[in-house]
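Worked example (supplementary).
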Amino acid sequence: MPRELIKGNEAVVKAAILAGCQAYFGYPITPASEIAEAAAKYFPLVGRTFIQAESEIASIQMVYGAAGGGVRVMTASSGPGISLKQEGISYCAGAELPCVIADIMRGGPGLGNIAPEQSDYHQVVKGGGHGNYRCIVLAPNSAQEMCDLTIKAFDLADQYRTPVYVVTDGYIGQMMEQVNFPTAVQHPKRHDWGVHGDDATRKNLINSIYLDPDELEEHNRKLQKKYAEIERKEVLVDEYRTRDAELLVIGYGIISRILRTTVDLAREQGIKVGLLRPVTLWPFPAKRIQKLCERVQAIQVVELSNGQMVEDVRLAVEGRKPVKFYGRMGGSVPSAQELLGVIRKL
Amino acid sequence: MTDKLDRGRLEISVDECKGCGLCIVACPVQVIEFSKTVINKQGYHPAQYKGSGCTGCGTCFYACPEPGAVTVYRLAKQAQ
Amino acid sequence: MYEKYLEKSASFYPEYPRKSGNQSVTHYCPGCGHGIAHKYIAEALDDLKLTERTVLISPVGCSVFAYYYFDVGNLQAAHGRAPAVATGIKRINPHSIVISYQGDGDLAAIGGDEIIHAANRGERLTVFFVNNAIYGMTGGQMAPTTLVGQQTTTSPRGRNIHNEGYPIRMCELISALEAPVYVERVSLHSPGARAKARKAIRKALENQVQGKGFSFVEILAQCPTGWKVSAPDSLKWIEEKMLPYYPVQVFRDKSAEAEGWAPPDVAYSDADVLQLIELPLEDEAAPAARPKVPEQYRNPRIKIAGFGGQGVLLLGVAMAQLGMMEGYNVSWLPSYGPEMRGGTAHCHVNISDTPIGSPLVSASTVCVAFNKPSLEKFEKEMARGGLLIYNTSMIDIQPTRKDVEWLPIPASEIASQMGNIRFANMVVLGAFIQKTGLINMETAIKGLPAFIKAKKLIAENVKALENGAAFVRGELKI
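After joint prediction of all chains, the assembly is encoded as:
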């Protein structure tokens, strides 16, 4: 198995190629630029398409076009760029086009800064653009998962004909770790619904406009049915030392890595704490959190934001147990010791 | 039949015509007019061929915005 | 006796099942120029036998429902984005004929960026731009091409150059770019003008068939409803009001000399792909037995800091790479962004027997300081009993922490004596290896090419490693 010390951002690109992604359309932005740079390096080498688009808006619309052509396709960006892409993501969701969007989150609002934050949660998990839609959101916390979950993102996107995000923070994107890449190169089957520019698919239409209210409602109901199925089947969650936990900490991305160290530190001090990490931010592991609620006394959520995911935790907990929030913003990342102090106050 | 046959013939679909009149102003030999009596499904007085004089030039076809409203015929070679 | 000469094109659906209401006529108003442009495109697709492989991008605007009519592959696009959507599908299906059909608001206002850049890239597309100087679909608002003085619902006193500026001439803008192959403005106002329009539309499609780059045809078209005139009068409106401002002419025609392009027919085997993206299949040999590591150096949490350009980040990568080769769990996390480009840089490295939780190093057990500010800043946060390696060539003070082990090394001077001060980081790596025993020197030498990309520098870097190690053993004096 090919093994490489590699940045999470670059692992995304190699994984995408292995997953059979045919085209990358993007616009550079720190801290996601290594994805565009690696795509520029590797995609053309293996006969695939790379274009640095004129804008974030154009890049997601190129994705729309290529996805409509029935191939695997991706783009990547960070907060301000994702804001711009929301138009196209809504169109992809509406026209049921599979695509993968990597979001390497940075500080906001506005231009903010390039340091790691997790403040895109709302804009990626809650739909983000206009209309009644959801995107699947995968949240890797290591370079290995940047690879594995990128491949999974393409599979899910095709399976459900929906946009899938791979969302992480600047740290996970920039960090180098060992990645064991799969050796299989996927050759995805051609989509029958795609417009391939041939006679067989000439009658196909990629579209999100339904002028008649009844038709649009029916289309929306179909989408909601699909989302309900995703919520039933695709929740992914990772737990660490939750078996006997009396306290539960919840975090994703870089925070889940720090919390893992914090859990060890707390356990050394006799505090029975466990870590739950949502791997899918949508669908959110609400059921699992409810289950753990039966045993734990309190829940501590930690995010690099003003408290965005904590809203979903509170919706899941429904007031059964106290849910506390600790957040850092602006690119300051708490140390494991700092979070130990937070847990001790629980 | 002593008259020479017209070089062209014209069919205007009553129900596809929107009565804009572009074919009427385009026709170089002025053989198209609005019907004064017919009101079509869309509520327009459609254009109609006066019945003779068409040269089969096709100018009306290329002036008409409706894909299927106008069909132009030409006299077959052997008939000429 | 009579034979059909001109009839509905086969590239149109016979009926329009996607449309609600009357499915035998278009949704366009009486006299609308869109229907005429549609007919000319359909006729050209018939004649050039392109129907089967054509993909039409419908825009937002009156022609949003172009897909009701054309019996070709269809994508409906967001407002203004048709050239980007067309780019996406043309690039992955280069054999197809992709048409971006757009109105004036779509192409010249909200989609101004997309059209300019698709043109500038020389995308092998055909763009038909229907300019009727008004927003028809939304009820007669001002377009970027609305004429000076023209009244619309959003320029009720007439377009005023002091408030709205001048109408945009797109052909002139597009033809200022290098890449476009063919740019022409045509009009629908008279039989002669329409004949030229048909010819231009055909040519713009033929260019794409031959792989000849970006072709753009602007069609001055009537909007009797929006202009509030009769259909026959709308033709006069084009002639009298539009033609003086929008000259009908060929702006660019390199069709004859432009080189044709066909997509390369290259197949890549899976093995090719793995090799080209630098994922070699062969398994690395199992790591040699690790030397026994003294307790205090096990599972180091390492902080490395210095000026940008001192090889701080590379030293971290090297430690992580070699650690990985020895079978440890490793992580490397840089300070990134503008910090990397000049100024100071630091990175966090973990080398561990167990899975790594936080990759951030806050209480470092190994601290490497290349310059004075780094020593002052990071010495403080070291864990008790840690190892402090500092570059005495650039640090003229002593550490203050008495509870950590000091390893002073004149790394820059050792490197400088070798002829290149940039080897200081490898000198430090050699010292680190010798001191901690975490990594075999053979592994380090074998692993160098993974992070030293310039082959001709490998031997000297090996020497730097050895010098660093020799210094720690007391065999090298400066």
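Two points are worth noting when inspecting this output. Chains A and B do not touch (no CB pair under 8 Å). The longest helix of chain A spans residues 213-233.
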